[in-house]
Each structure stands twice: as structure tokens, then as C-alpha cells.
Amino acid sequence: MTTVLLVDDQPLLRMGFRLVVDTEPDLEVVGEASDGRVALEQVAALAPDVVLMDIRMPGMDGIEATRRVVAEHPASRVLVLTTFDVDDLAFAALRAGASGFLLKSARPDELVDAIRTVAAGTSVVAPRVLRRMLDLFAGHLPAGGDVPTAGDPHPRLAALTPRELDVLRLIAGGASNSEIAAELFVSETTVKTHVGNVFAKLGARDRVQVVIIAYECGLAAGGRETVR
């Protein structure tokens, strides 16, 4: 059973989400919160698998709440709710550690599928959508300096091997595992091993976090960096 905490300052929206989630046999709403501070208390008390988090709330907003949940309760994954598909606040929530975002206008089946996906440890943002967000909000990222190379990597990437840097560049460009395998002329099994190593060395939980780290380190500025 996947447990869900609903966080939104609008009671009617919480009621609607609860009706959708509780109809699924494998999902259960275990609590609700109307702002980020209450959400943190509920996460500490209930340890939900997934936190469905609104961004715009009075008091502590969803961005700060997401940052705190990820830091203090890493077993709980955050799926943020947004009104627009390219939203600077949704982007900030992803940088804070959310595993994906979902439009408030999403269909019921999209909502439950997203919850299951996040609970399984996968992100709910297509890499190419994330690239679009990064391109639009690149000014919010810290300057990455010169694009790193295998011989002179950014300090945060120093632990990666040259091949892992290649894999990271391709992930940041929106490539799937099969596309990476074709580009590097290796098997998908080998790619999965490299991807796992990249995640572990960067301390990233999913592809969303890996792509953001790559941009922050200047590895894929503007989403156009390719393997040479």
C-alpha cells in the first residue's frame, strides 16, 4: 500500500484529490495539511510514501516545505502541484528535491499514475520537459563557469569517470537509456550500470536531480551539450 499526504491550502482541492486517491486499492490518503509547516509535522508523524505538495501556500510555501521534507525525511518523495506546465516555482521545487510535478488540471488517471511512479522511485518529469524549463530559467542557476571536460571536471563531478561524464551529458540532453546505448555503442545493461554510478556519486535520487546538477555544474549549459 502506498501512503499519500495531501498538502494544499484549498479544502475543496484536497477533498477532490482524496476522492480520486482513495478509490485506488493500492493507494491510501493518510493525512492532509493546509500549509508547509503543518505538512512537515504530518510527514514526521505519518511517514507517507508520497507527499502531494501545492507550491503556492500561505506561511511556509511548498518550495521550502519540499526542501525540508527531502532533507529530513528522505524516504518520503514529493510530487508538486502546479498550475502551469512551465512554472518558475515548480522549477524551484524540483531544485529543492521534488521528484516531479503535476498540473492541477491533470486527469484522475494521470494523478494516480504519477503517485505510483514517484513512489517507485522514478521522476515525473520527462527529461526534455526539464530541459525546456532549464533553458527558460537558466538565469536562476548559479554560474557554472567553463564547461567541464574529462580532464578538468567541475569539483562536484570530480568522482565521475570520463565515461560517466559522457553518460551525464547525454542524460542532461534528455536521452533515454536506449538512446545513450546507441550513442556510446554499448549495451543498455552497461548504460544502467553507468547511470547507477552517476546517481550514487552525485547523491541524486532520480534523473530530475541528475539533470539539474549537470546544469548547475555547467556541464550542459542551455541543454545543448553533446558528447564529442
Automatic annotation (TrEMBL):
Pfam family, one: GerE
CDD domains attached to this UniProt entry: LuxR_C_like, REC_NarL-like
Keyword Transcription belongs to the record: yes
Modified residues (4-aspartylphosphate): D54
SUPFAM superfamilies: C-terminal effector domain of the bipartite response regulators, CheY-like
Annotated ranges, domain HTH luxR-type: 153-218
InterPro entries referenced in this protein's UniProt entry, alphabetically: CheY-like_superfamily (IPR011006), NreC/VraR/RcsB-like_REC (IPR058245), Sig_transdc_resp-reg_C-effctor (IPR016032), Sig_transdc_resp-reg_receiver (IPR001789), Tscrpt_reg_LuxR_C (IPR000792), WalR-like (IPR039420)
Keywords, comma-separated and alphabetical: DNA-binding, Phosphoprotein, Transcription, Transcription regulation
Keyword Coiled coil: no
Response regulatory domain mapped to chain residues: 3-119
Protein name (database record): Response regulator transcription factor
Source organism of this protein record: Cellulomonas xiejunii
